[in-house]
Amino acid sequence: MQPLFSETGLKRVEEVARAGLLCAFDFDGTLVPIMSRPEEVRLSDDVRGKLLRLSAHAPVAIITGRALEDIRGLLGFTPDYVVGNHGMEGVPGWEARAAVHAQQCAGWKAQLTGLLARTPGAEGIEIEDKRYSLSVHYRAAPDWQRAAVFLDEVCAALDPQPRLVAGKCILSLVGVDAWHKGNALEALMELSGARTAVYAGDDVTDEDVFRIKRAELLSVRVEHRPDSAADFFIPRAEDTERLLDELIARLAACDARNWLRKETALHQ
Predict the structure, then answer these.
(1) CATH for 109
(2) Does this entry carry the keyword Transit peptide (predicted)?
(3) Do residues 52 and 113 both lie within one domain?
(4) Is the pLDDT score of 33 beyond 80?
(5) What is the per-residue pLDDT across 79-114, written as a single tens digit (0 to 9) for each?
(6) Same domain as 104, residue 217
(7) Contact call for residues 58 and 234 (beta carbons, < 8 A)
């Protein structure tokens, strides 16, 4: 994983930033910083403005772990694609799989609620019901490491066993056959007819995208992590703004060249 804002990284941006690009982003930790109260997060005016300018040149997708009904109220604009629940909501055809995931989550929630109520050491642990997945938050727990180990043990007793995805003081529970962000991105590339794509994310759930090795996909991780499968990294969530600037500048230049070629051909 190399720095994106290096000669090699910016050359790669230049290669993908052309007609037919799909621009996809995670939300929390990528477009906005991680907050102790996720419900209070909003896009800054600067980031929203740059996403709107970007969308004038290329389709924009938000692929997030939040539920669709949650994320849509936080954006302040309408992207071309919005995918929630780590890839389970928003991609065409997702409704056909939704009932099974909802039933599984209802069962896990009932089991977890009972287990947490009966077990000492569950202080500060909260269950967020996203209908098709569950997120168990432990940022408020007195001892984060102990809470993480405790949750692994508790979730091992669930029936049926979920796929567990560990994040930053959060444990997501999804169906073992549920779509993930990688499935969602590839589906959106096909749906949009994208010839290239860029994806930026910051968490373990984004590794499902980073592990896709396609020449036409540029993957960017927020914060360096030695074991990440991402191609490049940017140091902080705030640096996503520079990524947006780089994409806008190159796509605008590409559009201008294409317009000039058309005008030249028209008057020959």
Answers:
(1) 3.30.70
(2) no
(3) no
(4) yes
(5) 999 999 999 999 988 888 888 899 999 999 999 999
(6) no
(7) no
Number of domains in the chain: 2
Cα dihedral across residues 142, 137, 241, 185: positive or negative: positive
- pLDDT number for residue 240: 97
Q: Are residues 156 and 124 in the same domain?
A: yes
The pair of three-digit structure tokens given for residue 174, joined into one six-digit string: 């999804």
Say whether both 82 and 143 belong to one domain.
Answer: no
Read off the pLDDT of residues 124-166 as tens digits, 9 standing for 90 and up: 899 999 899 999 999 888 888 888 888 988 898 899 999 998 8
Distance CA 217, CA 200 (A): 11
Is there a contact between 16 and 246 (Cβ–Cβ < 8 Å)? no
Burial class, 171, CB count within 10 angstroms (exposed 0-12 / middle 13-18 / buried 19+):
buried
Higher pLDDT, 185 or 95: 185
Find where tokens 């994409």 sit: 247
Range of the domain at 47: 2-93+179-266
Residues 89 and 198 in one domain: yes
pLDDT given at position 200: 98
Specify whether 208 is located in the same domain as 185.
yes
Tokens of 54: 């970007």
85: left (phi over 0), alpha (psi -120 to 50) or beta: left
> Kindly report the CA angle at 206 between 203 and 207, in degrees rounded to 5?
100
- Same domain, yes or no: 106 and 236: no
Q: How far apart are CA 63 and CA 186, in angstroms?
A: 12
Cis check: omega of the bond before 226, within 30 degrees of 0: no
Give me the CATH number covering residue 215.
3.40.50.1000
What is the pLDDT at residue 84? 94
